[in-house]
User: What shape does this take?
Amino acid sequence: MRKYLKIVTTTFKEYSAYRLNFILWRLRMFISTAITFFLWFAVVGGKNIQFGSYKESSLLSYILFANLLYEFAMGTRTVDVAGEINNGVIINYLLKPVSFFKYYLSRDIADKLLNVFFAIFEIGILVIYFKVSLVIPKNILLAFLFLLNGTFISFFLSLMLSFLGFWTTEVWAPRFLFFMIVAFLSGAYFPLDLFPGPIYHLLLLTPFPYLYYLPTKILLGQVDSIIVLEGAMATVWVFLSYKLTRLMWDRGNKSFSFWGR
Amino acid sequence: MEQLKRNLKIFILFSTFALKSTFQARLGIIFFIAGKILRFFFFFFFIFLILSKTKVVTGYNFTQAAIFYLTFNLIDTASQILFREVYRFRDYVVSGDLDLILTRPFHPFLKVLLGGVDFLDLFLLFPYLAITFFFAAKLPHITFQSSAFYLLLVLNSLLIATGFHILVLALGILTTNVDHTMMIYRDLSTMGRFPFEIYKEPIRGFFTFIIPIGIMMSFPPKALFQLLSPGFYLLSFLLSLVIIFLSLRLWDYALKQYQSWGG
Assistant: This one.
């Protein structure tokens, strides 16, 4: 356990060493959140508009909370793994007395904590400047449990994409496609229940709504009547994605060869 | 003229190399194009969703909102086709390979700015053009004059995009950071997917006159709808010249500060 804590603190130090890089990264994240927020603020801000089941405060709260939880669920360093497989650096991890999965999970924890910390301030700026009346978060424990599931799903999916590096050097294109799908189907731009009913229910069969859409909805106090089923489905996706990731890892290790290190 | 011919020859040579390396990654072609097509349709749906629920895009109907979105796609795609090499610039700086480019007997922009034409985006430009033409044909009061001004302003937007890319190159030399500055520009430009009237002041003013994303993305469709007053045409052309001038000055300054980092 201590060695993984050390990895967390080392990752913090790594970020503080490359400060400009981190500041620019946060600026990008802030701009991205702000643009979605500006759009919805223009649509519902100061107007008595009902958008689906959302009014001004619930819709703006959704956008801001979803972007905050996005940082936690989706923030990851596992994108580096594909490159490390392709250039052979991964051998260094295999030789060390650390679990590869736990090593990257520790790095991810540091990444998530740091990003969420800054995101809270950035979102605070938007809330204060635009005088947003936020919905007071509810069901925090339940939302956290769902978020934990979403975080694991995201972690394993991202690792799977990186493990493609065991078989091909073309690792960025599948990730790009995956990112495009996630961006829309996980609820970053708008709440997924604005989709027509049948599409929304089909989406609930995929892993995407479990990443941070459902945790955000729960925080807003909008708990679906099928929450138990949704919880079960999220757990199934964690289990499935874990098993598939392990399978790819085992197969990948067997087929992997590298030279010159 | 002789110089122009020579530069064109070098540009074609680099573009041929880029085409060959694009076809080295066949799986990548499929995934990248699929991702871009998905993103295109997803945002189309997003615009439709907003317009179907509320008449918020003041004064604009769905066809007009679609033309704003399509114009953004045309300008964004065209600039990615031309300036893809900028995304690889950091490697040249940190590895010291930039020295090898600077010492060659052609202008470095031929390599670092225009040297990696993105053929994947080129494939997408034609459907975007066709869809834009389809929606533009549905406009009731379109004239030859408004279409000509639309084209002229799209070209002007590409000039502004050129300026921004040169700025990114210059900042790349000064800070060795290219990826984030490039993506900040890309993120900001995505505001142009929607008519700028949707944004409230002071956001609208800031992103029209200080960081001229509004001028780049919103002015051409407004010219097509004949909603742009003459003063704004002049402002648009003047601004692109100012940005090009400033970016070239910063590039010159950055070159003077450049020290080979690696090698």
